[in-house]
Amino acid sequence: MDAVHRERTALGTIVYSLISTVTDDRSTEVALNAPPLARLRCDPGATSHLTIDGDTVTLRELGDEETLWRSFEAEHKKSVGDVPQNLETEFAKALGRLQGEAAASLRLPKHGSVQSGLLDEIVKSPRGNHRDYRDALAKQRSARTDQTRSAQFNKCSELPTRSQQSRRRFSSSLEACVT
Known about the structure:
Blueprint: H1 2-11, H2 14-17, E1 21-23, E2 28-34, E3 37-42, E4 50-53, E5 56-59, H3 65-79, H4 87-101, E6 105-107, H5 118-142, H6 146-158, H7 161-178
Parallel strand pairs: 3-5
Antiparallel strand pairs: 1-6, 2-3, 4-5
Helix pairs in contact: 5-6, 5-7
């Protein structure tokens, strides 16, 4: 019994993260050096993918930097006006800081309840990727022209995005558990 207690103490709370559910419910904000914009915020509860309100840019989720930049650039042109030359660099710097500070909550299951935990999510990601690659490969093999094969190949090269997002979520969850 003492050995179990010592091991449990040595492991700390990280063991609980494996059965926990990740909940994206924490807002994070960093400075954005792009006057008149001063803050870049990630708010999982936001109703829109990207908004500019006053001096704050709000993203509902963190994802691919290029996609976020294109959305931000379009919204900036619409809401603020011309896009300054250094804006893309400042946006990328702020986004990097925001990704480093983003966090999620880990929720332990209630006694007696059965629900998917973090381990289940880890297993789902490769299964989903396997399914995506299998389908893309089947389409590529059945393509009749080189141009169609090339288009299917390019779609295959874009597929890892799902696992990258899962890794980011897992990393932030693990970090939340350890700190």
